[in-house]
Amino acid sequence: MIKSILAPTDLSAASLAAVGYAARLAASLGASLQVMHVLGDSMSSAAFVEMYTALPADYFEGLERSAQETLRACLTEEEKQQAHVVMTTQLGFPVDEIMKRLGEEPRIDLVVMATHGRGGVGRLLLGSVADKIVRKAPCSVLTLRDVPVTQTTPVSADAKQLESAAV
What we know:
- By secondary structure, the protein is α/β, with parallel strands linked by helices.
- The chain has a single domain, classed as 3-Layer(aba) Sandwich (Rossmann fold), CATH 3.40.50.
- The protein has helices at 13-29, 46-51, 59-73, 77-82, 94-102, 120-126, 129-136, 156-166; strands spanning 4-9, 32-40, 85-92, 110-115, 140-145.
- Helix 1 links the parallel strand 1 and strand 2 (32-40).
C-alpha cells in the first residue's frame, strides 16, 4: 500500500509537472506527499573554494528562498491539502540527499520524478539523477517523461493499478 510519496524536483518545468502528477496521485491514494528540492553543493566544494574566492554567506540563503517560493507556487492550496504536502529544501548533492531521505522515517513507499530523457553522450558525461535513483532506491520509482506542464489528466484509474503493482 502506498502511504507516502516523495517527489524530488530540480524546479525545471518537467519536474514541476511531475510534482503536480505526484500530488494528484497522492490525493487519489490518500497518501502524503513530500516535495523535495536539493540545492546543489558543487559551488561550495573545497576545490571550488581553493580556485576562487569563497561565496558570500547569504548566497545559499537567497537560493533557498527562491526555491521555496517556486515550490509554494507549483501546487494550489487545494492540491497541497488533498495530498497532505510537505515541502523541503536541502543543501547537498541531489542523489545523496534523495537517498538519505529514502533511508529515513517516515518511510517513503514511492518516488515520482521527471526524467529529461537525456541520452547518448549527455547521459554518459552528466549521468542522470533519475537513473541513479531508479537503480538505488529501496522503493518503487515512477519516472515521468515529457509530462506537459498543464496536464490535468486524472490519475485515479492508474493509481489503483500502480498501488497493486508496488505492493
